[in-house]
Amino acid sequence: MDREREQARARQLVMERRPAEDGGTRPLCLLLRGRAGTGKTELAFRLARALHQHHPDGVLYVDLDDVRRDGAVEVADILGELLRALGAEWIAPVFRERARQYWSLTHGKRLLLVIDNARHGTEVEPLLPASGDSLVIVTSHGPLYDLQAGAATEFPLAPLDPADALELLERVTKDARLAVEPEETRRLLDLCSGLPAALHIAGNWLRRHQEPPLARLLDRLGTELRERGIPVVEQLWDAAYDSLGPAAARLYRLLGHFPGPSFTLAAADVLLGRDLDTTEDALAELRAAGLLDGRGTDGRERLPELQRAHARRRAETYGDQSEREEALRRLVRWYLRQAQHADLTAAGPRLRTAAEAPPVPGTRDVLFEQPGDARGEAAARAYHWLEAERHALFGCVRLAHTVGTAGDTDWGLTEAAALCEPLWTHFLNHPHYGDHIDAFRWGVAAAQQAGDLPLLVRMRCQLARPLWEQGEFEEAERQLTQAWSTVRGAFGTSAPERKLAASTREFLGMLGSARGNWADAAREFEASGAVHEEIGNAYGATLQRYRLGEALAHLGELERAAALLERSRDEFAADGRTRLTGRAEFALGGVYARLGRGEEAGARYRAALEGTRAVRGVRDEARVLDALAELAASLGEESEAEEHRTAARELWERLGLAGAGSDR
């Protein structure tokens, strides 16, 4: 009933596994495969709970269906999630480097990784830890033929036999009718076809209907539906749905269209549009009926994809299209407002082109700032919210763009593009390249169709950066060239328009920097800075001075670079921008070192080190330590140089970039 044979076999494989002497062979991989409802995920969790003590370096979980788009998984994004779970304080921007980080951070570790809902071996292979002492449990509907031969031990999960199915049903229901009415019980077991998921749903359904005899319940549940040829589990879900009250049934129908794989109580409340008590009662009713996975450790509810499809079919049969459209419109606008507030809390005032979203009637805003917060707590809370809600945010962008493109409503396009602006702050801290590039493309298309030129320019700039960071330099240049063409052809002389024009030139300069075209970059930074000076945007002017100083240093104009970096460093410090102050100090130290001013270079590097440690910038700290080591070696102070090298090496190893060196 609890898959005892499979659990015993898995335990035996783990116990008989010989420890890898260097921790570098392939991990033990168990593939749990079977059709929907056979209990693959539940068995994976049982095995993880039973075997976690043998893997003291951590238990990791990823659900590939959470990030699957059009049938494909962006493996680089999954690697990013795993790296964050492993404590990496900096995530490399491209797949190749993320894979290298993951390999380094998992080498020699004893990890347990659960990979849920795999469809292809190519999705699994890059996620395998670099340690023969690790254990990987994969669930899939079928064999993973393209997984390296011999890489996984397969556990085909057939439906439960009648005895085990009955034992499970008895445990779920504790219902005396099962013994009193054996013929009806047999019919119920036949209906469930040995699928644990179906048995759990049937058990919950029976617990909700204690009074009628089983024969009458089974007549309602099975005969007519079987004649219609609806799949077994679908029959049980239909019966569970039919038992719901109006609010729970309405919420279930709407959840089938929720733009993400999981949701919070707050989001469900917005979708239902009633009041919080009603929403909580509706969710409790859905859990009791077996129509929700239940709240996980992250406080989020999940509706599995097969059930989402069922909820959508119930919506088509029993729902009202206007009800659904109004709920989704309310949800998109609520997410837009929360994302804008999270952006402001996390990043502070910055260039924004979209108007602030008004409150959504009948809903509550997320409280990012709370009484008694220590410095940085509200920002951390906002960053966490953006990352936790990213699937819903990306889904809202896609949904709004789709609705707006249809052209038969008065909303969608502006919301789609406006939602992308706060996703910029999310991208800078948690880059999910596949999702962000898709979202920013939708933002470009939506702003273009809406005729919102400032927002269109902003969207093209936002799209360009992840493109060039992924090596797509030509497309990034096309986006920025089109943005600049719009600026020159359509913008006037107002301060907001000039500020956006200056920002566009900054992006052009950053693209030049990424390509190593420092002369072009310097020209754009200087022009951008001049505009910021003219319109009185002090922070923008300081930022361009810093960028120009870096570009001039690469061009060999060291004295001028030093002057610009000194001034920008002082202005960043006066404005309380610790991270940027540290980066300016680091750049200044490099210029002083090249000018032969070793003592001053050391002082600037040490100041940069203090700043990076204050903001926990581990990657920046490693770079500074590498630079200090190089400077000490050039001055003949070899013991000090080795001390810095050792400290830097430890940090690079923490980042999964052992041996990366200061060129990173």
Q: What fraction strand?
A: 5-15%
Instruction: Tell me, rounded to a whole number, the average pLDDT.
Output: 88
* CATH H-level homologous superfamily name of the largest domain: P-loop containing nucleotide triphosphate hydrolases
The helix tally amounts to 30
Q: What is the strand arrangement across the widest sheet?
A: 2-5-6-1-7
Q: Report on the biggest sheet.
A: 5 strands, parallel
Q: Report the top-level CATH class of the largest domain.
A: Alpha Beta
CATH architecture of the largest domain: 3-Layer(aba) Sandwich
Textual characterization of the structure:
It comes from Streptomyces murinus. Residues 26-173 form the AAA+ ATPase domain. This is Tetratricopeptide (TPR) repeat protein. GO terms for molecular function: ADP binding. The chain has 664 residues and is mostly helical. It has six domains: 4-156, P-loop containing nucleotide triphosphate hydrolases (Rossmann fold); 162-243; 246-319, Orthogonal Bundle (Arc Repressor Mutant, subunit A); 321-451, no CATH class; 453-544, Serine Threonine Protein Phosphatase 5, Tetratricopeptide repeat (Alpha Horseshoe); 556-663, Tetratricopeptide repeat domain (Serine Threonine Protein Phosphatase 5, Tetratricopeptide repeat). Helix content is 65%, strand content 5%. The chain has 30 helices and nine strands. The protein has a five-stranded parallel beta sheet with strand order 2-5-6-1-7, with helices on both faces. It has a two-stranded antiparallel ribbon with strand order 3-4. It has a two-stranded antiparallel ribbon with strand order 8-9. Helix 9 (196-208) runs parallel beside helix 11 (232-242) and helix 23 packs antiparallel against helix 24. The model has no long low-confidence stretch (mean pLDDT 88).
